[in-house]
């Protein structure tokens, strides 16, 4: 299984009118790029502090903020904004993103010519997991809110698969957090189901970290330690996520940037983010497929003991470095627009 993430942003500012677009050369690992506006209920936010729609998918990477930081440096280190959109104002004040990636993990380019400044930021990460997971592909399909989708995970207990999955918090089958450790153990993939409907991704991130601390304390109790162990009667099922989306931040156009030298006008800001999360390793040529006629053995399980860790309702995905709170990808998944339909 791999999560693969690619994100790029081009901001063009000039003192006169013009426009700029990012290069849409596509990576074969990702689906064809489409405008995010073609989806009815999926949104980008440039920072974790931006208000997030309560009922839609929300996607964040810090690439906008890295590009914006480069813009600030290109204009002498400081500027004031006029006619700025509220979302851009909120993004302008955040600095916590800087710990998400080190300079060697992303690229920025700045070109200044004839009073125009063009800048871009780009990063890509591939996180092959230690063991290829099972696929939920044949027979009765897995469903998210009743909609059949492709999924992966651990349908029948497999010691190697279980070894790379850690339960960080567990209250019920509708309230839990897991972590999947990739081959690069300096990274972590966290999935959380059943969080409250926070107004921002920053709020969801804080809630996730708080519950992880609760789980760490509970694991020290012998009375609760079984909740944090994957047993032969347990299952893990995760929807396949796959998208390549582009957005023009049209609301940012026309923002005036005042600095010591002159005033520039922000003409365009375009972001493209691609992501794949499925059962395959990044370079694995083989996979394990488990085919069933129905969801296996559900009726014979003891509901008071079995943990059915199914992400069949809204959940959060967090990719970040181990020991670093700030993510380099965070998503709130509320519907099937980013999933692979059956």
SSE map:
Blueprint lengths: L1 E13 L19 E2 L6 E3 L12 E4 L2 H12 L5 E3 L3 H7 L14 E7 L2 E11 L7 E3 L5 E3 L2 E3 L1 E4 L4 H5 L1 E8 L2 E6 L6 E7 L7 H18 L16 E5 L1 E8 L7 E3 L4 E16 L29 E3 L4 E7 L7 E5 L9
Parallel strand pairs: 2-16, 3-4, 15-19
Antiparallel strand pairs: 1-7, 1-18, 4-21, 5-17, 6-7, 8-11, 9-10, 11-15, 12-13, 13-14, 14-20, 16-18, 17-18, 20-21
In short:
The chain has two domains: 2-126 and 243-276, no CATH class; 134-240 and 284-333, Alpha-1-antitrypsin, domain 1. The chain is built from four helices and 21 strands. It has helices at 63-74, 86-92, 159-163, 201-218, and strands spanning 2-14, 34-35, 42-44, 57-60, 80-82, 107-113, 116-126, 134-136, 142-144, 147-149, 151-154, 165-172, 175-180, 187-193, 235-239, 241-248, 256-258, 263-278, 308-310, 315-321, 329-333.
Walk me through what this model shows.
- This protein is 12% helix and 36% strand.
- It is mostly beta strands and 342 residues long.
- It folds into 2 domains: 2-126 and 243-276, no CATH class; 134-240 and 284-333, Alpha-1-antitrypsin, domain 1.
- Strands 1, 2, 5, 6, 7, 16, 17 and 18 form an 8-stranded mixed beta sheet that branches. Strands 3-4-21-20-14-13-12 form a 7-stranded mixed beta sheet.
- The radius of gyration is 21 Å and the shape is elongated.
